[in-house]
Amino acid sequence: MPQNQSRNRPRQTMRTNYNAAQNLKASVRPKVSRPVKKGPKIRWAKICVFVFALYCMIHLISGFFSIVDLKQKQAEVNDRIVAAQNEQDELKEKIRYMSTEPAIEKVAREKLGLIKPDEIVVLRAKSAD
Question: For residue 124, what are the CA distances in angstroms to 88, 99, 111, 121?
Fold first, then answer.
């Protein structure tokens, strides 16, 4: 049996040498990396980011135009407020004037045709031209 063991030993060493040679070749040979295929997940991610960016830009632009429109409406309302305040001031001044003695006398003479007791009324005749 010792001879059988000696026969087996060279075989084992041959196998071990063959495996070692294969490992050496594998370690010496540069590993070529295969290009990693980008799956549809990355493509969908790019599409989603693009759509989101487009959505944001649209709302940003529409928001800008809304702000411009609202500022224009605010300016118009402010102009109307100033005009109404001016009209109110004029009407207050007219009310103050109409409560004075000369204004009351003027309205009584012109619109109502009233005269003072010691006055004489002189009327002009219209010419027939």
Answer: 40, 31, 18, 10
